[in-house]
Design goal:
Radius of gyration: 22 Å
Structural class: alpha+beta
Bound molecules: flavin-adenine dinucleotide
Shape: globular
Length: 414
Protein backbone atom coordinates (compact mmCIF):
# COMPACT_ATOMS: atom_id res chain seq x y z
CA UNK A 1 0.00 0.00 0.00
CA UNK A 2 1.60 3.25 -1.10
CA UNK A 3 -0.53 5.75 0.80
CA UNK A 4 1.85 8.44 2.03
CA UNK A 5 2.12 10.19 5.38
CA UNK A 6 -0.73 12.51 6.22
CA UNK A 7 -0.61 16.19 7.08
CA UNK A 8 -4.03 16.99 8.53
CA UNK A 9 -3.14 20.53 9.48
CA UNK A 10 -1.99 21.22 5.91
CA UNK A 11 -5.12 19.67 4.44
CA UNK A 12 -7.34 21.65 6.83
CA UNK A 13 -5.48 24.90 6.16
CA UNK A 14 -6.08 24.50 2.45
CA UNK A 15 -9.67 23.42 2.78
CA UNK A 16 -11.07 26.68 1.49
CA UNK A 17 -9.09 26.31 -1.70
CA UNK A 18 -10.10 22.67 -1.98
CA UNK A 19 -12.11 21.18 -4.78
CA UNK A 20 -15.18 19.09 -4.11
CA UNK A 21 -13.95 16.20 -6.23
CA UNK A 22 -10.78 15.35 -8.14
CA UNK A 23 -11.29 12.66 -10.78
CA UNK A 24 -8.35 10.75 -12.24
CA UNK A 25 -9.07 9.42 -15.75
CA UNK A 26 -11.02 11.36 -18.35
CA UNK A 27 -12.33 8.49 -20.49
CA UNK A 28 -16.09 8.06 -20.95
CA UNK A 29 -16.81 7.24 -17.30
CA UNK A 30 -14.53 9.85 -15.67
CA UNK A 31 -15.59 12.63 -18.04
CA UNK A 32 -19.26 11.76 -17.59
CA UNK A 33 -18.94 11.79 -13.80
CA UNK A 34 -17.16 15.16 -13.97
CA UNK A 35 -19.97 16.62 -16.07
CA UNK A 36 -22.68 15.17 -13.82
CA UNK A 37 -21.08 16.62 -10.67
CA UNK A 38 -20.47 20.02 -12.32
CA UNK A 39 -24.15 20.14 -13.33
CA UNK A 40 -24.93 19.59 -9.63
CA UNK A 41 -22.84 22.64 -8.71
CA UNK A 42 -19.62 20.92 -7.62
CA UNK A 43 -16.08 22.16 -8.20
CA UNK A 44 -14.30 19.42 -10.12
CA UNK A 45 -10.78 18.79 -11.47
CA UNK A 46 -10.14 16.08 -14.04
CA UNK A 47 -6.69 14.54 -14.54
CA UNK A 48 -6.10 12.73 -17.84
CA UNK A 49 -2.84 11.22 -19.01
CA UNK A 50 -3.36 11.37 -22.74
CA UNK A 51 -4.66 13.79 -25.31
CA UNK A 52 -7.43 11.86 -27.08
CA UNK A 53 -7.10 12.07 -30.88
CA UNK A 54 -10.02 14.11 -32.28
CA UNK A 55 -13.09 12.32 -33.60
CA UNK A 56 -12.93 12.10 -37.39
CA UNK A 57 -16.24 11.92 -39.25
CA UNK A 58 -14.60 10.35 -42.31
CA UNK A 59 -12.62 7.76 -40.38
CA UNK A 60 -14.82 6.08 -37.74
CA UNK A 61 -13.23 5.15 -34.41
CA UNK A 62 -12.67 1.38 -34.26
CA UNK A 63 -13.99 1.21 -30.71
CA UNK A 64 -17.75 1.65 -30.44
CA UNK A 65 -20.16 1.22 -27.55
CA UNK A 66 -23.64 -0.25 -27.55
CA UNK A 67 -25.19 2.23 -25.14
CA UNK A 68 -28.22 1.02 -23.20
CA UNK A 69 -31.29 3.29 -22.87
CA UNK A 70 -30.41 4.29 -19.29
CA UNK A 71 -26.92 5.37 -20.43
CA UNK A 72 -28.48 7.39 -23.27
CA UNK A 73 -30.95 8.94 -20.81
CA UNK A 74 -28.05 10.02 -18.56
CA UNK A 75 -26.25 11.62 -21.52
CA UNK A 76 -29.49 13.38 -22.50
CA UNK A 77 -29.95 14.66 -18.98
CA UNK A 78 -26.39 16.00 -19.02
CA UNK A 79 -27.24 17.87 -22.22
CA UNK A 80 -25.01 16.07 -24.72
CA UNK A 81 -27.42 13.56 -26.29
CA UNK A 82 -28.47 15.84 -29.14
CA UNK A 83 -24.84 16.67 -30.05
CA UNK A 84 -24.12 12.93 -30.29
CA UNK A 85 -27.19 12.25 -32.40
CA UNK A 86 -26.35 15.15 -34.68
CA UNK A 87 -22.78 13.87 -35.19
CA UNK A 88 -23.26 10.09 -35.47
CA UNK A 89 -25.32 7.68 -33.41
CA UNK A 90 -27.08 4.54 -34.62
CA UNK A 91 -30.14 3.34 -32.71
CA UNK A 92 -30.84 -0.36 -33.07
CA UNK A 93 -34.31 -1.83 -32.85
CA UNK A 94 -33.64 -5.54 -32.62
CA UNK A 95 -31.17 -8.08 -31.31
CA UNK A 96 -30.59 -11.62 -32.59
CA UNK A 97 -28.38 -14.12 -30.75
CA UNK A 98 -27.77 -17.66 -31.97
CA UNK A 99 -25.28 -20.48 -31.58
CA UNK A 100 -23.10 -22.01 -34.28
CA UNK A 101 -23.95 -25.50 -32.95
CA UNK A 102 -27.61 -24.97 -33.91
CA UNK A 103 -30.79 -24.74 -31.85
CA UNK A 104 -33.10 -21.82 -31.34
CA UNK A 105 -32.17 -18.15 -31.64
CA UNK A 106 -32.87 -15.55 -28.98
CA UNK A 107 -34.62 -12.49 -30.36
CA UNK A 108 -35.51 -9.12 -28.84
CA UNK A 109 -37.45 -6.36 -30.57
CA UNK A 110 -37.83 -2.83 -29.31
CA UNK A 111 -41.44 -2.69 -30.45
CA UNK A 112 -42.51 -5.73 -28.42
CA UNK A 113 -40.84 -4.20 -25.34
CA UNK A 114 -42.69 -0.93 -25.83
CA UNK A 115 -39.59 1.05 -26.81
CA UNK A 116 -38.35 2.96 -29.85
CA UNK A 117 -34.91 1.35 -29.66
CA UNK A 118 -32.96 -1.19 -27.64
CA UNK A 119 -29.92 1.10 -27.53
CA UNK A 120 -27.56 3.00 -29.80
CA UNK A 121 -24.09 2.49 -31.20
CA UNK A 122 -21.70 5.40 -30.56
CA UNK A 123 -17.96 5.77 -31.23
CA UNK A 124 -15.64 6.09 -28.22
CA UNK A 125 -13.76 9.17 -29.51
CA UNK A 126 -16.99 10.99 -30.39
CA UNK A 127 -18.40 10.35 -26.93
CA UNK A 128 -15.20 11.47 -25.17
CA UNK A 129 -14.86 14.57 -27.36
CA UNK A 130 -18.48 15.59 -26.81
CA UNK A 131 -18.14 15.17 -23.04
CA UNK A 132 -14.91 17.19 -22.93
CA UNK A 133 -16.41 19.98 -25.08
CA UNK A 134 -19.25 20.29 -22.55
CA UNK A 135 -16.80 20.13 -19.62
CA UNK A 136 -14.66 22.97 -20.95
CA UNK A 137 -17.72 25.22 -20.95
CA UNK A 138 -18.12 24.88 -17.17
CA UNK A 139 -16.62 27.63 -15.00
CA UNK A 140 -16.06 25.34 -12.02
CA UNK A 141 -14.02 22.86 -14.09
CA UNK A 142 -10.24 22.49 -14.19
CA UNK A 143 -8.44 20.09 -16.51
CA UNK A 144 -4.95 18.66 -16.11
CA UNK A 145 -4.04 17.12 -19.48
CA UNK A 146 -1.68 15.43 -20.13
CA UNK A 147 -0.91 14.64 -16.50
CA UNK A 148 -0.45 11.57 -14.36
CA UNK A 149 -0.80 10.91 -10.68
CA UNK A 150 2.25 10.18 -8.54
CA UNK A 151 1.03 10.44 -4.96
CA UNK A 152 -1.96 10.31 -2.65
CA UNK A 153 -2.45 11.52 0.91
CA UNK A 154 -5.65 11.47 2.86
CA UNK A 155 -7.04 11.89 6.33
CA UNK A 156 -10.31 12.77 8.01
CA UNK A 157 -10.16 16.34 6.62
CA UNK A 158 -9.64 15.63 2.94
CA UNK A 159 -7.58 14.05 0.21
CA UNK A 160 -4.60 15.34 -1.75
CA UNK A 161 -3.59 13.98 -5.14
CA UNK A 162 -0.10 14.85 -6.37
CA UNK A 163 0.61 14.93 -10.08
CA UNK A 164 3.93 13.91 -11.66
CA UNK A 165 4.77 17.58 -12.32
CA UNK A 166 4.41 18.35 -8.60
CA UNK A 167 0.93 19.97 -8.75
CA UNK A 168 -1.13 19.16 -5.64
CA UNK A 169 -4.91 18.90 -5.90
CA UNK A 170 -6.87 19.01 -2.65
CA UNK A 171 -10.45 17.81 -2.51
CA UNK A 172 -13.10 16.26 -0.31
CA UNK A 173 -13.17 13.19 -2.54
CA UNK A 174 -10.89 11.55 -5.13
CA UNK A 175 -12.36 9.25 -7.78
CA UNK A 176 -10.37 6.65 -9.69
CA UNK A 177 -11.74 6.50 -13.26
CA UNK A 178 -8.35 5.66 -14.75
CA UNK A 179 -9.33 2.30 -16.24
CA UNK A 180 -8.49 -1.33 -15.57
CA UNK A 181 -4.82 -0.62 -14.69
CA UNK A 182 -5.78 2.26 -12.38
CA UNK A 183 -2.82 3.96 -10.69
CA UNK A 184 -5.00 5.77 -8.16
CA UNK A 185 -6.55 2.44 -7.11
CA UNK A 186 -3.02 1.14 -6.44
CA UNK A 187 -2.08 4.27 -4.47
CA UNK A 188 -5.19 3.77 -2.35
CA UNK A 189 -4.07 0.20 -1.61
CA UNK A 190 -7.04 -1.54 -3.26
CA UNK A 191 -6.33 -5.00 -4.67
CA UNK A 192 -8.15 -6.69 -7.55
CA UNK A 193 -9.20 -10.27 -8.35
CA UNK A 194 -8.24 -10.89 -11.94
CA UNK A 195 -8.77 -13.62 -14.50
CA UNK A 196 -7.24 -13.46 -17.97
CA UNK A 197 -9.62 -15.02 -20.50
CA UNK A 198 -6.80 -15.95 -22.92
CA UNK A 199 -8.98 -14.28 -25.55
CA UNK A 200 -8.76 -11.04 -27.48
CA UNK A 201 -11.49 -8.84 -28.94
CA UNK A 202 -10.93 -7.90 -32.58
CA UNK A 203 -12.80 -4.77 -33.67
CA UNK A 204 -13.28 -3.07 -37.03
CA UNK A 205 -15.86 -2.30 -39.72
CA UNK A 206 -17.43 -4.44 -42.43
CA UNK A 207 -19.79 -3.83 -45.29
CA UNK A 208 -22.48 -6.48 -45.68
CA UNK A 209 -24.09 -7.61 -48.89
CA UNK A 210 -27.55 -7.18 -47.36
CA UNK A 211 -28.91 -4.52 -44.96
CA UNK A 212 -28.02 -4.86 -41.27
CA UNK A 213 -31.71 -4.12 -40.57
CA UNK A 214 -30.79 -1.88 -37.60
CA UNK A 215 -30.21 -5.09 -35.68
CA UNK A 216 -27.43 -6.04 -33.27
CA UNK A 217 -26.40 -9.57 -34.28
CA UNK A 218 -24.36 -12.02 -32.24
CA UNK A 219 -23.31 -15.55 -33.20
CA UNK A 220 -21.67 -17.76 -30.59
CA UNK A 221 -18.76 -19.84 -31.89
CA UNK A 222 -16.54 -22.28 -29.98
CA UNK A 223 -13.69 -19.70 -29.85
CA UNK A 224 -15.95 -16.84 -28.71
CA UNK A 225 -18.87 -14.70 -29.90
CA UNK A 226 -18.91 -12.58 -33.05
CA UNK A 227 -21.07 -9.44 -32.74
CA UNK A 228 -22.02 -7.39 -35.79
CA UNK A 229 -23.48 -4.02 -34.80
CA UNK A 230 -25.27 -1.64 -37.19
CA UNK A 231 -23.28 1.52 -37.79
CA UNK A 232 -24.78 4.87 -38.70
CA UNK A 233 -24.73 6.31 -42.18
CA UNK A 234 -22.93 9.62 -41.82
CA UNK A 235 -25.30 12.23 -43.20
CA UNK A 236 -22.53 13.83 -45.16
CA UNK A 237 -20.14 11.18 -46.30
CA UNK A 238 -21.58 7.68 -46.53
CA UNK A 239 -21.59 6.63 -50.17
CA UNK A 240 -25.19 5.82 -51.20
CA UNK A 241 -24.18 2.25 -52.00
CA UNK A 242 -23.08 1.66 -48.39
CA UNK A 243 -26.21 2.98 -46.64
CA UNK A 244 -27.64 0.50 -44.17
CA UNK A 245 -24.88 -1.99 -44.87
CA UNK A 246 -21.97 -0.76 -42.76
CA UNK A 247 -21.50 -2.45 -39.38
CA UNK A 248 -18.84 -2.56 -36.70
CA UNK A 249 -17.82 -5.95 -35.36
CA UNK A 250 -16.47 -7.24 -32.05
CA UNK A 251 -15.04 -10.72 -32.52
CA UNK A 252 -13.82 -12.61 -29.44
CA UNK A 253 -11.17 -15.21 -30.22
CA UNK A 254 -8.50 -17.23 -28.44
CA UNK A 255 -5.22 -15.24 -28.44
CA UNK A 256 -3.44 -17.29 -31.12
CA UNK A 257 -6.43 -17.23 -33.48
CA UNK A 258 -6.89 -13.47 -32.94
CA UNK A 259 -3.26 -12.91 -33.86
CA UNK A 260 -3.56 -15.02 -37.01
CA UNK A 261 -6.75 -13.34 -38.21
CA UNK A 262 -5.64 -9.78 -37.49
CA UNK A 263 -2.63 -10.15 -39.79
CA UNK A 264 -4.53 -11.67 -42.75
CA UNK A 265 -4.88 -9.68 -45.99
CA UNK A 266 -8.30 -7.94 -46.17
CA UNK A 267 -9.84 -10.35 -48.72
CA UNK A 268 -8.93 -13.40 -46.64
CA UNK A 269 -10.17 -11.82 -43.43
CA UNK A 270 -13.44 -10.98 -45.22
CA UNK A 271 -13.86 -14.63 -46.21
CA UNK A 272 -13.18 -15.81 -42.65
CA UNK A 273 -15.58 -13.36 -41.00
CA UNK A 274 -18.31 -14.14 -43.57
CA UNK A 275 -17.96 -17.83 -42.76
CA UNK A 276 -17.86 -17.20 -39.00
CA UNK A 277 -21.06 -15.16 -39.32
CA UNK A 278 -22.67 -17.94 -41.37
CA UNK A 279 -23.22 -15.42 -44.22
CA UNK A 280 -26.27 -14.22 -42.28
CA UNK A 281 -26.12 -10.85 -44.07
CA UNK A 282 -24.50 -12.21 -47.22
CA UNK A 283 -20.82 -11.54 -47.78
CA UNK A 284 -18.99 -9.32 -45.30
CA UNK A 285 -16.16 -7.16 -46.65
CA UNK A 286 -13.56 -5.61 -44.34
CA UNK A 287 -13.65 -1.81 -44.59
CA UNK A 288 -11.09 -0.72 -41.99
CA UNK A 289 -7.98 -1.56 -40.03
CA UNK A 290 -8.46 -4.08 -37.20
CA UNK A 291 -7.73 -3.30 -33.54
CA UNK A 292 -7.31 -5.93 -30.87
CA UNK A 293 -7.81 -5.84 -27.08
CA UNK A 294 -6.91 -8.40 -24.38
CA UNK A 295 -9.93 -9.58 -22.40
CA UNK A 296 -10.08 -10.06 -18.66
CA UNK A 297 -12.51 -10.27 -15.78
CA UNK A 298 -11.29 -8.03 -13.00
CA UNK A 299 -13.12 -7.01 -9.85
CA UNK A 300 -11.74 -4.62 -7.24
CA UNK A 301 -11.87 -6.10 -3.74
CA UNK A 302 -13.18 -2.77 -2.39
CA UNK A 303 -14.78 0.22 -4.12
CA UNK A 304 -13.86 2.72 -1.40
CA UNK A 305 -10.67 3.35 0.62
CA UNK A 306 -11.14 6.36 2.89
CA UNK A 307 -11.94 9.22 0.53
CA UNK A 308 -11.01 7.39 -2.66
CA UNK A 309 -13.84 5.87 -4.71
CA UNK A 310 -13.58 3.61 -7.78
CA UNK A 311 -15.81 3.85 -10.87
CA UNK A 312 -15.87 2.22 -14.32
CA UNK A 313 -13.15 -0.19 -15.40
CA UNK A 314 -11.02 0.84 -12.41
CA UNK A 315 -13.63 -1.01 -10.35
CA UNK A 316 -14.71 -3.76 -12.78
CA UNK A 317 -13.62 -5.05 -16.17
CA UNK A 318 -16.06 -7.50 -17.75
CA UNK A 319 -16.16 -9.71 -20.84
CA UNK A 320 -17.41 -7.64 -23.82
CA UNK A 321 -19.87 -10.32 -24.99
CA UNK A 322 -22.86 -8.40 -23.66
CA UNK A 323 -21.45 -4.96 -24.58
CA UNK A 324 -22.06 -3.79 -21.00
CA UNK A 325 -18.64 -2.43 -19.87
CA UNK A 326 -19.37 1.24 -20.39
CA UNK A 327 -23.01 0.85 -19.36
CA UNK A 328 -21.97 -0.53 -15.97
CA UNK A 329 -19.53 2.37 -15.60
CA UNK A 330 -22.25 4.90 -16.41
CA UNK A 331 -24.49 3.22 -13.82
CA UNK A 332 -21.67 3.79 -11.30
CA UNK A 333 -21.78 7.47 -12.31
CA UNK A 334 -25.55 7.72 -11.85
CA UNK A 335 -25.35 5.98 -8.47
CA UNK A 336 -22.44 8.06 -7.10
CA UNK A 337 -24.13 11.25 -8.29
CA UNK A 338 -27.35 10.29 -6.50
CA UNK A 339 -25.52 9.40 -3.30
CA UNK A 340 -23.55 12.67 -3.25
CA UNK A 341 -26.56 14.83 -4.19
CA UNK A 342 -27.26 17.54 -1.67
CA UNK A 343 -24.25 16.71 0.53
CA UNK A 344 -22.33 19.59 2.09
CA UNK A 345 -18.58 19.78 1.39
CA UNK A 346 -17.87 18.25 4.79
CA UNK A 347 -20.29 15.38 4.09
CA UNK A 348 -18.89 14.33 0.69
CA UNK A 349 -16.39 11.88 2.17
CA UNK A 350 -18.67 10.45 4.88
CA UNK A 351 -17.84 6.74 5.24
CA UNK A 352 -21.51 5.75 5.52
CA UNK A 353 -22.39 7.60 2.33
CA UNK A 354 -19.53 6.06 0.37
CA UNK A 355 -20.26 2.61 1.78
CA UNK A 356 -23.77 2.88 0.36
CA UNK A 357 -22.33 3.51 -3.11
CA UNK A 358 -19.96 0.53 -2.74
CA UNK A 359 -22.77 -1.77 -1.58
CA UNK A 360 -25.11 -0.86 -4.43
CA UNK A 361 -22.58 -1.03 -7.22
CA UNK A 362 -20.36 -3.92 -6.14
CA UNK A 363 -23.21 -6.38 -6.10
CA UNK A 364 -24.63 -5.41 -9.51
CA UNK A 365 -21.20 -5.32 -11.15
CA UNK A 366 -20.13 -8.65 -9.65
CA UNK A 367 -23.35 -10.36 -10.79
CA UNK A 368 -22.82 -8.95 -14.30
CA UNK A 369 -19.14 -9.98 -14.43
CA UNK A 370 -19.88 -13.54 -13.30
CA UNK A 371 -22.91 -13.90 -15.60
CA UNK A 372 -20.85 -12.90 -18.65
CA UNK A 373 -18.16 -15.27 -17.41
CA UNK A 374 -20.64 -18.16 -17.25
CA UNK A 375 -22.03 -17.37 -20.70
CA UNK A 376 -18.49 -17.22 -22.10
CA UNK A 377 -17.63 -20.60 -20.55
CA UNK A 378 -20.82 -22.24 -21.80
CA UNK A 379 -20.69 -20.85 -25.33
CA UNK A 380 -16.96 -20.45 -26.07
CA UNK A 381 -16.47 -24.15 -25.77
CA UNK A 382 -16.61 -27.05 -28.18
CA UNK A 383 -16.92 -29.83 -25.57
CA UNK A 384 -19.98 -32.02 -26.21
CA UNK A 385 -22.00 -31.24 -23.06
CA UNK A 386 -21.88 -27.42 -23.30
CA UNK A 387 -22.65 -27.71 -27.04
CA UNK A 388 -25.71 -29.87 -26.25
CA UNK A 389 -26.91 -27.38 -23.63
CA UNK A 390 -26.55 -24.16 -25.63
CA UNK A 391 -29.40 -24.50 -28.13
CA UNK A 392 -31.92 -25.55 -25.45
CA UNK A 393 -30.75 -22.72 -23.14
CA UNK A 394 -31.32 -20.09 -25.84
CA UNK A 395 -34.55 -21.83 -26.85
CA UNK A 396 -35.79 -21.88 -23.28
CA UNK A 397 -35.03 -18.19 -22.78
CA UNK A 398 -36.65 -17.25 -26.06
CA UNK A 399 -39.82 -19.26 -25.24
CA UNK A 400 -40.27 -18.25 -21.61
CA UNK A 401 -41.67 -14.77 -22.06
CA UNK A 402 -41.17 -13.56 -18.45
CA UNK A 403 -37.52 -14.72 -18.47
CA UNK A 404 -36.93 -13.14 -21.88
CA UNK A 405 -38.44 -9.88 -20.67
CA UNK A 406 -36.40 -9.98 -17.47
CA UNK A 407 -33.17 -10.44 -19.44
CA UNK A 408 -34.13 -7.67 -21.83
CA UNK A 409 -34.98 -5.39 -18.93
CA UNK A 410 -31.58 -6.01 -17.31
CA UNK A 411 -29.75 -5.34 -20.60
CA UNK A 412 -31.75 -2.15 -21.11
CA UNK A 413 -30.80 -0.87 -17.67
CA UNK A 414 -34.28 -1.17 -16.19
C1 LIG B 1 -13.09 -5.25 -27.51
C2 LIG B 1 -13.91 -4.46 -26.54
C3 LIG B 1 -15.17 -4.07 -26.93
C4 LIG B 1 -15.96 -3.38 -26.03
N1 LIG B 1 -17.23 -3.07 -26.40
C5 LIG B 1 -18.03 -2.46 -25.51
C6 LIG B 1 -19.41 -2.16 -25.84
O1 LIG B 1 -19.91 -2.46 -26.92
N2 LIG B 1 -20.17 -1.54 -24.91
C7 LIG B 1 -19.65 -1.22 -23.68
O2 LIG B 1 -20.39 -0.66 -22.85
N3 LIG B 1 -18.37 -1.48 -23.34
C8 LIG B 1 -17.55 -2.09 -24.22
N4 LIG B 1 -16.26 -2.38 -23.87
C9 LIG B 1 -15.76 -2.00 -22.55
C10 LIG B 1 -15.34 -0.57 -22.49
O3 LIG B 1 -14.33 -0.28 -23.44
C11 LIG B 1 -14.83 -0.21 -21.10
O4 LIG B 1 -15.73 -0.72 -20.14
C12 LIG B 1 -14.75 1.30 -20.97
O5 LIG B 1 -13.78 1.83 -21.85
C13 LIG B 1 -14.41 1.71 -19.55
O6 LIG B 1 -14.42 3.11 -19.46
P1 LIG B 1 -13.57 3.84 -18.33
O7 LIG B 1 -13.75 5.31 -18.59
O8 LIG B 1 -13.91 3.30 -17.00
O9 LIG B 1 -12.05 3.40 -18.59
P2 LIG B 1 -11.12 3.71 -19.82
O10 LIG B 1 -11.86 3.78 -21.10
O11 LIG B 1 -9.99 2.73 -19.72
O12 LIG B 1 -10.59 5.19 -19.50
C14 LIG B 1 -9.59 5.45 -18.53
C15 LIG B 1 -9.00 6.83 -18.82
O13 LIG B 1 -8.01 7.10 -17.82
C16 LIG B 1 -6.81 7.56 -18.43
N5 LIG B 1 -5.71 7.17 -17.55
C17 LIG B 1 -5.19 5.93 -17.39
N6 LIG B 1 -4.22 5.96 -16.45
C18 LIG B 1 -4.13 7.24 -16.01
C19 LIG B 1 -3.33 7.90 -15.03
N7 LIG B 1 -2.41 7.24 -14.33
N8 LIG B 1 -3.51 9.21 -14.81
C20 LIG B 1 -4.44 9.89 -15.53
N9 LIG B 1 -5.24 9.32 -16.46
C21 LIG B 1 -5.09 8.02 -16.70
C22 LIG B 1 -6.79 6.88 -19.79
O14 LIG B 1 -6.01 7.61 -20.72
C23 LIG B 1 -8.27 6.88 -20.16
O15 LIG B 1 -8.67 8.06 -20.83
C24 LIG B 1 -15.45 -3.04 -24.74
C25 LIG B 1 -14.15 -3.39 -24.39
C26 LIG B 1 -13.39 -4.12 -25.25
C27 LIG B 1 -12.01 -4.53 -24.82
Amino acid sequence: MSMQSTDSAGLRRNRRAALDVVIVGGGVVGACLALALLRDGRRVALVESRIEPPWQPTSPDLRVYALAPDSLALLDELGIGSALRYARCQPYQAMRVWDAAGGDALAFDAHSLGRDALGAIVEHSLLVETLWTALRQQAAFTAHVPATVSGLEQDAAGVEVTLADGTRLRAALAVAADGADSVLRGLAGIEVDRHDYGQRGLVGYVESERSHENTAWQRFLPGGPLAVLPFADAVDNTPAALRGRRSSFVWTLPNSEAERLSTLPGAEFSREITRAFDARLGELRLLSAIASFPLRRQLAQRYVAGRVVLVGDAAHAVHPLAGQGVNLGLRDVACLRRILAGAEFSELGEPRRLARYARERRSENAVAAWSFDGINRLFSNDAVLPALLRGPVLGLVSKLEPLRRLLAQRALGG
